[in-house]
Amino acid sequence: MQLKSLDEENQGNRYAIIIGINEYEDTAISKLNKARNDAKALDRLLKAQGQFNKVILLTDDADPQSKKYPSAENIMGRLKEILVGAGNDDLILVFFSGHGVTDKDGKGYLVAVDSDQANIFSTAIPVDSIVTQLSKFNKSLLLLDACRDVVYKTKALEQNPLQTDRYAKSKLAATFYSTQSGYYSFEDEESDYGVFTRYLLEGLEGKADTNKDSVVSFTEIELHVQEAVNGWSAKYKKKQKPSTEIHGEKFGDLALTLADGTEKSLIIEKKDATVRARRGMFWRSLLVPGWGQWHGKDYGFDPSTQKVKASFFGIGSFLLVANLFHENSLYKDAKDTYRQETILNTATSLNSPFVFTPALYTYTRAEAAGADYQTAANRANLSIIALVGFMAMNLLDVSFFGNITTFNPFLKEAPTAYMRGEFKVTTEKLAGQNGQRGEIEILFRF
């Protein structure tokens, strides 16, 4: 199914520019936790299910020298790059997740990564400038998740989040705001997205497809997001009310994505993320102790703690394995010596029925070798117990200890490569009432 050939409203090419900013260069501007994920997830979704000809992603973790860094200059430059090659029948989608502010005249601005708090209105991007560019096209969508309640870290500065009323009469086909004027846009505690973007994503994935035609339209998305956010607000006793402004006589019901009907989803709730994180950490630590703890820092566990744990379990297991090899080597040497001394003592005793100096000497040596042999066997057994116990503690740590805070929903779960190998350890255990000796062979495979 080709979205652009469904009907007259969906003819033409499809372009999108996606922007997400967590951390700003000016430390006076408060940090966000999930705006970057908002952008990355929408980027993936539009590429996978939206049949967009071109999607440009700008996030603050990109190289500051690259065009993917969301500075004011880059944002406007990349937007111009798309619009220069677009036709009047093409769909243009612009998404911004980050901070937005409004001046005393009600004029809104999107705070770029290089905006300066002291000169915020001259260094941020006027929404009017984006509106002016997009208004030349009949099918343009502006999606703004930029109404956070705390823009600046200090309470001495006026908190003036982005308002919606200023753009009600713009020539855009549609503007979809994360919340109405006078309300705030929140970050979702159950997932790793903003509340607005969480339900936007799940709707575009297919949950908004109420008529089951496998096509998610803008009307369906609008209804789904508004109902879902209102439900979230009631559940958590917050006030967030998405707002939509429809503009232009030629605006139709745009097809945005195809619902693929699968169970896969970019929306991962925290409880599911924890299970997924621990599962991924478990098999990594099973292969290489400490690897799971190291990987946990990318899943959302405290990075400094995970690095300490990774070092502890990694170095500790290496030392215990080295000790096991050493004790196993001593055990084998002691066993060979004991066998040789026993054979010599038996031969001497048979040739000399009476106790005399040679027989007494070989008997004493055999007894000493036997004691050394038993000591070596005990030490080898303890080395095995120590290693197995340490590895069990390593697996218990990744299974139960530590709490996930934020998480990365884009990590692959299946291993792409394995290290394979094995080593064998032999030792001895006393069994039976008469102290019979039995040899144990343990094969470690990984």
Overview of this protein structure:
By secondary structure, this protein is an alpha/beta fold. The chain has 2 domains: 265 residues, Rossmann fold (3-Layer(aba) Sandwich); 174 residues. Strand 4 and strand 5 form a beta hairpin. Helix 1 runs parallel beside helix 5, helix 7 packs antiparallel against helix 8 and helix 9 packs antiparallel against helix 10. About 6% of the residues have low confidence.
Roughly how many Å is the radius of gyration?
34 Å
According to DSSP, the number of beta strands is 13
Spans of 5+ residues with little confidence (pLDDT < 50)? 152-159, 163-172, 412-419
Task: Provide the structure class.
Answer: alpha/beta
Estimate nothing, just give the exact number of structural domains. Answer: 2
Q: Return the CATH topology of the largest domain.
A: Rossmann fold
The percent range for helix content is 40-55%
- In percent terms, what proportion of residues is strand? 15-25%
Biggest pleated-sheet summary: 6 strands, mixed
CATH architecture verdict of the largest domain: 3-Layer(aba) Sandwich
| Strand order, largest beta sheet | 2-1-3-7-8-10
Give the distance, in angstroms, between the N- and C-terminal Cα atoms.
46 Å
